[in-house]
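Marked as duplicate of an earlier ticket. Keeping the data here for the record.
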Amino acid sequence: MEIKIITHERVLYDGEAEKVIARDTQGEFEILQNHVPCMKVLDTCAIQIFNNGDCFKFATMGGILQLKDNQILVLTDIAESGKEIDIERAKAALSRAEHRLKEMSAETDAKRAEAAKARALARLKASLEI
């Protein structure tokens, strides 16, 4: 099957896949060849693309996944290849978000801190080697 990951700035990935793992708003899912057509609202997650023994990872900050006739299209505002991610920066962002959540005060925007934590975790997961 084929998969494209597209942001408003560029086509981040355009290639073949034997298996794709991602997460929507209800949890993690896996797509294999000849999967039933579907549309998914993606959560902030790391998309994993497996092909010929290789695994390509991409951090996506939400988006839409469409699957039809073994063609997967991912449209997202923000996505990064795992190879492009600055691991130390992602770790620092995770630490800051966890600190804000731990030290909650009236001025802390909990939703914003949770979103920052989810983005940092997606980036870290996408940057890890299998």
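See parent ticket for discussion. The chain has a mean pLDDT of 91.
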